[in-house]
Amino acid sequence: MTSTIEPPDPEDGRLRLLDAWWRAANYLSVGQIYLLDDPLLRRPLEAADIKPRLLGHWGTTPGLNLLWAHLNRLITERDVDAIFLAGPGHGGPAAVANAWLEGTYSEVYPAVGDDEEGMQRLFRQFSFPGGIPSHVAPETPGSIHEGGELGYVLSHAYGAAMDNPDLLVAAVVGDGEFETGPLAASWHANKFVDPVHDGAVLPILHLNGYKIANPTVPARIERDELESLLRGYGHEVLTVEGDDPMTVHAQLLAALDTAHDRITAIQTAARQDGDTARRPWPMILLVTPKGWTGPHEVDGVLVEGTWRAHQVPLAGTRENPEHRAQLESWLRSYRPEELFDAEGRLVPELKDLAPRGKRRMSANPHANGGLLRRPLDLPDFRAAAVEVPTPGGSVHEATRVLGQWLVDVVRRNPETFRLFGPDETASNRLDAVYEVTDKVFAGTILDSDEHLASSGRVLEILSEHTCQGWLEGYLLTGRHGLFSCYEAFIHLVDSMLNQHAKWLKTTRELEWRPPIASLNYLLTSHVWRQDHNGFSHQDPGFIDHVVNKKAEVVRVYLPPDTNTLLSTMRHCLASVHYVNVVVAGKQPSYDWLTADEADLHCARGLGIWDWASSGGDEPDVVLACAGDVPTLETLAAVSLLRTHLPELKVRVVNVVDLMRLQDDQEHPHGLPHREFDTIFTSDKPVVFAYHGYPWLIHRLTYRRTNHSNIHVRGYKEEGTTTTPFDMVMMNDLDRYHLVMDVIDQVPSLGSRAARVRQLMVDTRRRARAWTREHGDDIPEVRDWSWLDSVEPDSQASPSSTAALDDQP
Amino acid sequence: MTSTIEPPDPEDGRLRLLDAWWRAANYLSVGQIYLLDDPLLRRPLEAADIKPRLLGHWGTTPGLNLLWAHLNRLITERDVDAIFLAGPGHGGPAAVANAWLEGTYSEVYPAVGDDEEGMQRLFRQFSFPGGIPSHVAPETPGSIHEGGELGYVLSHAYGAAMDNPDLLVAAVVGDGEFETGPLAASWHANKFVDPVHDGAVLPILHLNGYKIANPTVPARIERDELESLLRGYGHEVLTVEGDDPMTVHAQLLAALDTAHDRITAIQTAARQDGDTARRPWPMILLVTPKGWTGPHEVDGVLVEGTWRAHQVPLAGTRENPEHRAQLESWLRSYRPEELFDAEGRLVPELKDLAPRGKRRMSANPHANGGLLRRPLDLPDFRAAAVEVPTPGGSVHEATRVLGQWLVDVVRRNPETFRLFGPDETASNRLDAVYEVTDKVFAGTILDSDEHLASSGRVLEILSEHTCQGWLEGYLLTGRHGLFSCYEAFIHLVDSMLNQHAKWLKTTRELEWRPPIASLNYLLTSHVWRQDHNGFSHQDPGFIDHVVNKKAEVVRVYLPPDTNTLLSTMRHCLASVHYVNVVVAGKQPSYDWLTADEADLHCARGLGIWDWASSGGDEPDVVLACAGDVPTLETLAAVSLLRTHLPELKVRVVNVVDLMRLQDDQEHPHGLPHREFDTIFTSDKPVVFAYHGYPWLIHRLTYRRTNHSNIHVRGYKEEGTTTTPFDMVMMNDLDRYHLVMDVIDQVPSLGSRAARVRQLMVDTRRRARAWTREHGDDIPEVRDWSWLDSVEPDSQASPSSTAALDDQP
């Protein structure tokens, strides 16, 4: 429904105060964009008072300031615990201005005081070299959402609200952002709100009508069409519209009260009466001009209320005296003399409007999640570990066993840990968690549904963007989570990952922001086992994307079996401020390491598997592997080599932590050159079977002594709907080809090797033909007998002394 | 509005025929998923008749078959030119079955005949090693949309309909796909339809209620809420709902007639009466059970109408006789004896239902765009080229000049070329095109708007996903286009690029699909010039993503100046079946090459810039560069070296075509080792200034003789809102640091060099401090006088003899 609201009496004194705060914030915003000096306009503006480069976005800013002012009124009158997410994060000056008005800015950055000198520094530093960015950046107190890349404000907001029953998350959606896919999908996040245990999101669609150079779609369809759409998204629409400030103040005040009443009613019904039936959540449709209160016309061209107000409406203020005069009268239109005292401090009457302490949106600890984060209570992974009598002596589905361990993680952390997935939690075989929790869903639930409930720890929507945004919002407010996804489709969030990695990188350098929990990906249903779906579902390139990010914040793990997956995931869930990418299979697969061996191997990150190796310190060749399928093929190749070329001394190296391959100058996990050379030798051929695109291994190892001897097999973009072994053959990653590679790289092997090589060629041909005839893999690839020849002949011994950082 | 439709008389003979076709398609679909042999059930099914691995998706298939049957009825009755896009592309068996029923399959693949033997081959090959994929793949006649990665069916459909006024694009949206962001955004594509010059899209939302393991959101909100949403998207909703086949046939027949009437009315009003006011376009909401007509229960558990019908409802048909018997009765329920004659051919009565020739959706040339593609009429780029009296003797904004050239491209190709961009065409300075065309927009247009009209060649929506989908749909149906985008945010379509590159790779091997036009990206507003927006807008990693794709289909260009950009873009627009990524700046920048020099340089892909080099064949050091900003810094470094270390012999190499760096075994554009060594030397230090992440250069060159001497500077994820020169300093890509790198790499330079190095260190410090004080770059980086020392001292001469492939 669309509601009509009774606005307050125009004489209501609150409106005047709201307007004064708004003017103060607008003044400070314009000052940040333009002024180097003379912050209180004590003299006519001169060229030297103006910044030489005008970098910022005015257009969205007055709307953000308006909302901040009014939310403060709501917070103080009703003692609301609220945070503010600015979808149009380009309006950085607004968040900074309000943080300064609330006193938070000077508390966090004492150099920027609350007086005239502080105001000058505030102005100068904005978009200035060595200063602060132009957006609502990590540097901005009160922010968990930068908004530079558009589309994520609602999913961040809903993530923040989860398990924070008393929190109100005000989420401003720009009407440009409204057009993006991720934002469009995330409206449906309201079907995943648990009204008992979650807080509320108040979406505010700010229709200022324009993007950079165009009108926005929602502003140019009929209003009833837009409202139909928003109601269809599950909202009650409270419209506030106008270009007369006092009228808008009156409407907005009433709308926020109404919205808060509605939220309270829904929550009360659910919490006191157990009535969790989904009802339309309120939202506000705010329709005000772009660049409102800014220059109406510049050089005879309309600016206010058009796309021309997007960035800096007066571009020539340094050189052009007319523009400068216009800027000055614009600034003076806010009547700064009424707002700031002689020393440049906010006048007491306005200061009193700010909420107190942590109720200030700029100082709310939910917007600085590291303050609230408590480590997860993690069970020992050994409780779920599988028995491994001998390497290859048992078979498990790694992710299914992980699911068993996660049962206990969920049980021990009932309010701070969630699982996110695009309809794939069961497909990815983590469904054991349904023993102790459900998938939360506020839509209609039928008797025939399984594990759906109004409360739960698992979130599933067929939108990787929404899953990622939820998890980010949940982490940024101090909690923990795991995103499981088909490997190929995690590329959908490449760009979101970029933004989150940038946030982590920047906040590492901000002492006042303690670290947050790591963003953990479990990528399964991976490239080698997309039997049903084929080529479209085969892409291992997310790893490549992630390793481009700042080394300090990214980690990539390829556990080769069940116990290593458990150990890895325990490590990841305990870690902070990283992006952890874990790639693991869900299909039945051999176990190689016992729990203790797995833990040691994971702590080292990579190591020689002595039990699979021969020849001790002087191998003829190194067979390296990373990933579950490459490990299987490598060990099978070792078995073939032992059978056919028993004199060949083979060293098997398995890599769990991919970043160990880089040197310690490049990555904190990097192996020093000496240790690398000890393991990979400095002159022997290395045949490396890798899970993903082979050139990544070269990119990580090109500085290594032995790099020119490293030969990598991996996914080379060949695939279809076929059998698992056909897939490895299509990409030359199969055991037979690895044997051929070894023979090609060890020329001293002589004529017997040539015959073995031909045998491999023939076997591959036969395997291919068999598969095409029978529609299945040749039985011998499932024959376990070859494992006899890789049975342990010695205990694994420490091959690398460096342990991973034992954070935390 | 939601419309009530009068269904036809239940005795209408058309319904029986529609049902028969549907049963035939369903029979063939189940056969594909299960059967190796006995395609006509001439004997009771035996284990050996069943495939050993059951790979496919039944759930969505009966819905797709139903729609195909009914669309054929519409096509034949009304002579409609239509194509079919299956959003739930997992239902591959449906598209294959209908193509076989229409005869197209046997025409395209003669080995799969139209009789019993052909049917057996059809069944066997599906999801079988050496056979065909399980999805609506490129191998499927009539498809331009694979649907493996969900979310793009509507944007593809709208792209296909552009400039095809007589085409009807039926686009089936799965209700799982409905939840994705890209799909959610793309509903608004109907605001960009030109009813005069474009065809129509008929969206069909198929609400079968379930995804892999969950109900879908749209199926579990109130129906009036869903309809409100769909009306809000701008549609008239025609609902067809039921689980009784004949009732649904009657409703769907009427709904399609109504939808077609509505479309005709809108188009007629626009075309005959000039009435282009936007009206609600019809869409169909089809509500039928998932896995309809399949096993209702399996092992006592409900399957039909639930998520359990998603893939293969009967999993044990080979081992379990009960399942096998259930499969047989399922197949027999379609009464194949009525559908196929004794030889396995479709009975004539049903055969007659198929449209004729190109009217068959499986044979419509719009679904095989290479058949329709005509080369663009491209003007000589020299017509727009800029005068370059000497290298660095003029300054231009490269993309603005490109815009001038595009004016003529648009003018000459008024129906086959479009520009796509997320609200950035003007920001990216291509706005000259508005001299000859407009931005198409069907929303309300105000007098104050500029260049918006109901017809136009430019499409702008703030959704990179929609832009990409539109362009793909436009290309796949035989036309041409250019997508201009901020460099950082093109990552939003990483995953879409994956899918398109896979399509290109696969169709290269399908002779019956001639090549389509290349997908051309112009990435500008790049990492080095995000002065306003800072860190969130800085990411050059799309190149890294693209080069992971199959070498045969990807090309990356980094033109260093205006004329090279023109030459490059002309090459790209003339090319076919590639993904071309062109990265170029929009800010004022020096010109280096005349039009002729630029063309030669681009044809070579890389080359020595003799005019900037000294020392001829025996340089002491090579300074290589790729990208406009790195080229500027490199030439400035050369100038500094000439001033301070005039005895040093410097070779300058500029790289336009990044793939030249790989060897010719790795990429078709790769430079043979001998030529690479001639240019980069086999033993001299190479200081490489690169636009993006530096390790990409190592990844491309690790096989080169001189690789260990290549030292790369590039973007290392350091950035903020600051000045352009501060950005290059933050990443050690600046001229001073390049000079330091040269000195560090040429130890023979001695003590004078040490003093120069210290001067560089001091100058950097001074530059940093100056910038932080004044908020602008130190004036000397804008001082052109240094250019004097890189003025040409010889004409550019051919340094590499290999020319690029001159396709087309």
Automatic annotation (TrEMBL), chains A, B:
SUPFAM superfamilies tied to this protein: Thiamin diphosphate-binding fold (THDP-binding)
Gene3D superfamilies named among the record's database cross-references: 3.40.50.920, 3.40.50.970
Cofactor annotation: thiamine diphosphate
Ranges annotated as spanning the membrane: none
Regions of compositional bias (Polar residues) in chain numbering: 792-802
Keyword annotations from UniProtKB, A to Z: Lyase, Thiamine pyrophosphate
EC number: 4.1.2.-
Record domain Xylulose 5-phosphate/Fructose 6-phosphate phosphoketolase N-terminal: where: 14-371
Alphabetized InterPro entries for the sequence: Phosphoketolase, THDP-binding, Transketo_C/PFOR_II, Xul5P/Fru6P_PKetolase, Xul5P/Fru6P_PKetolase_C, Xul5P/Fru6P_PKetolase_CS, Xul5P/Fru6P_PKetolase_N, Xul5P/Fru6P_PKetolase_ThDP_BS
Annotated segments matching region Disordered: 789-808
Pfam families from the UniProt entry: XFP, XFP_C, XFP_N
UniProt enzyme class: lyase
Chain ranges of the Xylulose 5-phosphate/Fructose 6-phosphate phosphoketolase C-terminal domain: 586-786
Similarity comment: Belongs to the XFP family.
Name of the molecule in the record: Probable phosphoketolase
Species this protein is from: Nocardioides bigeumensis
Lineage: Bacteria, Bacillati, Actinomycetota, Actinomycetes, Propionibacteriales
